[in-house]
Amino acid sequence: MSLHVHAIRHHQHQDGPGPRSVVWVSGCSIRCPGCINPHLWKRQPGTDTPVEAVLAALEPGRLGGDVGVTIVGGEPFEQDDLGALCAAIATHWPRVPGFPRLIIYTGYTLAQLRLNPNTLTTLAHIDVLVDGPYIVALASPDLGYRGSSNQRVWNLAAARAGAPPNSLPRSLEDDWDRPRITVTRDGALLPPTLARTLGLHTDRTRQCGQDERSS
Ligand code: SF4
Q1: Cα separation, 106 vs 213, whole angstroms
Q2: Which is nearest to 74 in space by CA: 13, 19, 7, 28?
């Protein structure tokens, strides 16, 4: 069981409330115009990584205080063994109260994913799903953790517990679309207005995850 892993980084703040460990996979057939990560459209040769090795590479993040894992792309749902990795993370990462343990960014919609019976098992391990393709005409720099307003945030963990799937975890409610903080290139967390006043470059806009080369 393996995935095409392009990069793994720890202590990230751009892909969900964190700090978080982030996994970038390569391979995406959706190919949205304006995608921030076109270098991840093709599966990169030599990056086939066993699930156990991905877990081991995530371990420094868990031990270093990361509150969860985010998987971005590329397209995570085009990885044959995404479900195995999600199940392993659900087993090995303790849940930190108030924070989503596993967030996945996908260019597919939740409705599309639910049409595939094999995907239902994977969805059962995901806390928050950010779904839908990146649409340039709907893009805005003010969308917390998302790139375009068609993309939706599904609290699958809450839905499994009987709450509405659009009721965000508190940690997301605080920041999603009403950002109280922003993240500078050097990782500082500041009120957006202060960052703008200081002229600092910030990385708020997301598509299927930030460009890993700029993180
Ligand atoms: S934005 Fe996401 S779904 Fe769209 S092409 Fe890029 S990686 Fe694929």
Answers
A1: 19
A2: 28
Residue 71 to residues 116, 128, 193, 196: CA-CA distances in angstroms?
A: 20, 11, 29, 29
Q: Report the nearest atom of ligand 1 relative to the CA of 147.
A: 1
Per-residue pLDDT of the chain (215 residues; tens, 9 = 90+): 899 999 999 998 878 887 899 999 999 999 999 998 899 999 988 999 999 999 999 999 999 999 999 999 899 999 999 999 999 999 999 999 888 999 999 999 999 999 988 899 899 999 999 999 999 999 877 676 788 889 888 888 888 877 666 666 655 554 555 554 555 555 555 555 566 666 665 554 456 666 665 44
**Which ligand 1 atom minimizes the distance to the CA of 207?**
1
Residues flanking ligand 1, CB < 6 Å: 28, 30-32, 35, 37, 73-75, 107, 133-134, 207-208
Distance from residue 73's CA to the centre of ligand 1 (Å): 7
Quote the ligand 1 centre to 13 CA distance (angstroms). 20
CB 88 within 8 A of CB 51: yes
What are the structural domains, with CATH classification, of the chain? 2-166+204-214 (3.20.20.70)
